[in-house]
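re the bet — no i am not wrong, look at it urself. input seq straight from the record:
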Amino acid sequence: MVKKIASVTLQQLLYEWDHGKTKARERILSNFIANHINVSGPDLEEEFADAASLFLTRITTWLRLTYLLGGNINIQLDSVKIFLSASCGQRYLSEFLEVGGILTLLEILGLKSAREIDKCSALQLLETISKCGRKYKEVICESYGVRAAAECMARSFSADTQQNGLSLLHSLAQGNPRYQKQIHQVLKDLLPSTNPGTQKVAAQGLRQIQKLVGSPTPSLVENVLALLRSVHSDVQYEASQLLQMLVDYEDVREVVVCGLIALLTPTLDDVSRATDAPLAQHLQQAAAAKLLGILCDDSPKLAALAVRNGVVAGLAVVLSNARHRNSQQHAARTLALLVEMFKEVEKTLCESLGQEILDEFRRCPEDIHEKLSPSQLDKLIARNTQITLVDSDESDE
């Protein structure tokens, strides 16, 4: 009796679908989505009299006929997701793939007419497929899904689209060794983007999957260092977090530290463009000085490496940057830390500035730049291009 009622209900639904126009079909799908969240495959079959595939086929057919024309694509995609995410619903996934479902989703990502909400739904559906196993991850990747997702992220200025794209790439990288390096490379390629949202999620993604591909390359470090010039604080934050992770890899440890030290000193081009307003160069100096302080505080070994590579001279340059107080304060904090860590640094500052100013620096490092004369700063820079440490081989405690 229950099956007979279900059969009648299905016939009524399919009749209304087949004879209905766009608004009627959207109403059917809205009701379907609202009433079938987190249902299982057997539940769907019971409700649709063992013929749920008939309804899925109609949805996918309508999607393939209309997605190029625009319209309310996301409601169709969300309806398909009900089937594909249903537990014990493997047959629905197979049916969707057989009709070219993955290619349809990837084409939606590249459509100029598609709305951001449509692209989000397509990315979420691709992630649902990806989570069904390595076989399906590889099918998406073989269909140029990695490139399509990355290009979608690069073009979009929607935070939701970018985060959904990142979530898909992260899912594709898990348990999929054949394509991990490709996914890592596309994220690396997104770092120089002019889209700050894209830069942010690319740095996030690299932090998530770097351990899957092994040691980073110096070129990756250079790309991440460039993000410290960003005027967007969230981009700077993600770059700093990624650099803190990359410095743990011995192959690029010195590249990271030396790269940060290099950012402390402006180039001639930066100086020629300097104005009273904070420039990217000033923000870069502040971010580099702050991050060097964090790294030195975390690891005496990194602190010694920084001192040997001229960090004191670089910090002195930043102290002389009267156009950007924030840079001066970060540089002063880091320099004060090094004074406490290394007697050689303390001795050199004492010789350059005098004991009285050094004592005042210890008491209140953030205000010391106001008391230093240009000649004292020049002297400090000249004498600290390289400091020889007695215990140059010290390691982390």
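see?? The chain has 24 helices and no strands. told u. also Confidence is low (pLDDT under 50) at residues 1-5, 271-277, 392-397. so pay up
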